[in-house]
Write a structure and sequence with these properties.
The chain is α+β, with helices and mostly antiparallel strands and 196 residues long. The protein has helices at 10-22, 38-43, 63-73, 84-109, 118-133, 148-164, 173-185, 187-190, and strands at 2-5, 27-30, 51-53, 59-60. It is 54% helix and 7% strand. The structure holds glutathione.
Length: 196
């Protein structure tokens, strides 16, 4: 199977880390989600990444459908038996923060300078900050108990690091420590964090 991707996307990063963590082999194919790439549009008419092209040609999107698929394919290596609902809530929460962070970037990428609306960017950033300060539960376990919640959180923080550098860190020591430990304990996944 083939994952259509671009390296900076938090949703791609989450899906790629989920595959790696679940022990599922996926070929990666780069596409350009900014410029109507025909390869991407043929797979996903919405023109969004990630899209997972299965061996029989069926295409899965969005990233939450893909992570569920990897979980089932691996016999449940991503969603913990104890509290799968908390993991799913974590994933939705972190994806929601990532969506706001991406929207803030797109305001500048897709609009001419004179039409960029700073209050819209500020509104998105306020959502990011509220999301970071109101996680749906205790910070996810890492190491041998890492699951989808931790992967979703890592991907989202990796995106904030890439596009907003340190602006998410102030006053959030426990998140900063969590992210440092995530990267140091999961070198194989850290390589799949969002990158330019
Ligand atoms: N809910 C989707 C969001 C995917 C998404 O927005 N991906 C962005 C890249 S980070 C994209 O493809 N943007 C191109 C566009 O919206 O045209 C998912 O989880 O897969």
């Amino acid at each position: 199977m083939k994952l259509l991707y671009a390296g900076a996307s938090p949703f791609v990063s989450k899906a790629a880390m989920a595959a790696q963590h679940a022990g599922i082999l996926v070929e990666h194919q780069a596409v350009d989600s900014t410029n109507e790439d025909p390869v991407l549009l043929e797979a996903n008419p919405l023109g969004k990444i990630p899209a997972l092209v299965l061996d029989d040609g069926a295409v899965l999107y969005d990233s939450r459908v893909i992570t569920r698929y990897f979980d089932r394919q691996s016999g449940g290596k991503l969603l913990p038996l104890g509290d799968p609902l908390l993991a799913e809530r974590y994933e939705a929460h972190c994806d929601g923060i990532a969506e706001c962070a991406v929207a803030g970037q797109y305001e500048r990428r897709f609009r001419p300078d004179e039409k960029v609306h700073q209050p819209w960017i500020d509104r998105q950033w306020a959502k990011v900050e509220r999301g970071l300060d109101n996680m749906p539960g205790p910070l996810p376990e890492i190491g041998s108990k890492l699951g989808l919640a931790g992967i979703a959180l890592g991907a989202m923080l990796g995106y904030l690091d890439l596009r907003y550098t340190d602006s998410w860190r102030g006053g959030r020591d426990s998140l900063v420590t969590w992210f440092d430990e995530f990267r140091s304990q999961h070198n194989d996944l850290a390589k799949l964090l969002p990158q330019a």
